[in-house]
Amino acid sequence: MKRGFANRFQVSLSSVTYAGNMRIWLLLVCLPAIALAGQIFTRDGVTDGDTFYLAPHAHVDDDPVLQSWVAYSLTRSTCQLEMGGENPARNSSYACEFTARRHLLEAWDAQRLEHGASDDYLDTLLRVREAGFLDEYTVRYFARKHWQVPAEVNIPAFKRWQKQHLQGHRPQSRLIGSWNYRDE
Q: Rounded to the nearest 10 degrees, what angle do helices 155-165 and 134-142 cross at?
């Protein structure tokens, strides 16, 4: 009797067809536990924290595009920290975003000249700056309702320029690192 049960049991396991689905299910079930074990806190899909940690690979990878986005990430996170509050990761202002994009372009300009690099998005953003619309670009693509925007930002003029020069454009933001809570 035991032998018959064992054979039926073995036969039923020998034709397992749900292994792929089971792995995906296990990953989805375990993902929250993995995230909590690493002390990553999110709310509304945004990483929270009071400390910005630069991604480890940013210290050793000298890719010009990556290093330009590192400049953006550090500038933006520093500004967010200077704004203060309980959760700096959630801070946002026109000044922070504009300054970070300006530093992104300064870094990219230097990197592309030094390495002869090109990047579709960053090269397009350089053209936006050269046309005198970096302020407007920042407001048009990244503004939040609570931002205080300078009066000289000319969105109608930018929209006219945008129609000719940015057809099908997709804005980007890349944070090279993550927010987390400091161990105390």
A: 90
Q: Are residues 144 and 175 in the same domain?
A: yes
pLDDT tens per residue, range 98-113? 999 999 999 999 999 9
- Domain containing 8 equals 2-37
Tokens describing residue 9: 């049991």
93/50 Cα distance (integer angstroms): 17
Q: Is the pTM of this model over 0.85?
A: no
Question: Does 176 share its domain with 114?
Answer: yes
